[in-house]
Amino acid sequence: MKVIGTTKDGYMITATRDEVANLLGFYFGGQEGCPRIAPGDEIETAGMFHQLYDLARKKDSLTDVAKELRTVAALLEARNPIIAGAVDEEPDAL
């Protein structure tokens, strides 16, 4: 993208089709589902920014939760032979 001018509240930019697709959450402009943008269309980026910002801020918390889930999974896997012996492998037919 390149800034080609300013407005009262912001900037005027040029962007390639792929750059616009990236702003919309797509990998490239020709990807299935990626809309074609026409002059006058608006791209709302605030929602996408806030979602990414929140994920970045919660990274440590999400990492901690992932570690806890891995620990629980390891405990369950270690006890799987005991659990498998206590219950039938095939659920009863209703």
Compute the number of strand runs: 2
Order of helices and strands: EEHHH
- Total domains: 2
Using only C-alpha atoms, the radius of gyration works out to 24 Å
Question: Which stretches of 5+ consecutive residues score pLDDT under 50?
Answer: none
What's the helix count?
Answer: 3
The geometry reads as elongated
- Widest sheet: strand ordering: 1-2
The rounded distance between the terminal residues' Cα atoms is 61 Å
What is the assembly state of the chains in this entry? single chain
Integer average pLDDT: 86
The percent range for strand residues is: 5-15%
Can you characterise this structure?
By secondary structure, the protein is mostly helical. It folds into two domains: 1-40, no CATH class; 44-86, no CATH class. It has helices at 17-23, 46-57, 59-86, and strands at 2-6, 11-14. The longest helix has 28 residues, at 59-86. A hairpin with a 4-residue loop joins strand 1 and strand 2 (11-14).
Brief account:
It is built from three helices and two strands, in the order ββααα. The protein has helices at residues 17-23, 46-57, 59-86, and strands spanning 2-6, 11-14.
